[in-house]
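cron nightly-structures :: item 1 of 1
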Amino acid sequence: MQVQIQALLAAEGGGTWEATARPHVKVAKPAIFSGKAGKVGGFVNVCKLYIRMKMGGATVVEQVYWILSHVQGGSADIWKENIMEELEAGEVEYKTAEEFLISLKKEFEGEEEEAVKAAELRKLEQGGRMMEEFVQEFKRAVRESRYEGML
């Protein structure tokens, strides 16, 4: 699969974005995404950040294939194969990497993820953390759970 992605990138211009990347700025790459519930939001955010900071000169196709290179295993692998076939056949085209990430998020974020995030919210405890850290974690959990009740 990685060989196919590299071949497609080479055909589309060979990773020209690397020459324009800002090497003095270090940005974390996303962890491999396997479709596991509760992980898609973080994966999408890290991808957005990396693309904005390091891949400004890349084409949308290069950015999409770079994202796909971090989608491996589990249910995400099957989804990736389907998307790659659609891309190669010209059945689907994304205007921006952001549009692609929205479709990825819609595919893997659903009621199951919201349920996982709601469960995390119910189990959240301050423990030995500073109050500021706990409050930020709480706000993130509320946002991701889409909790609409009164706080």
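cron nightly-structures :: done
Residues 14-19 have pLDDT under 50 and may be disordered.
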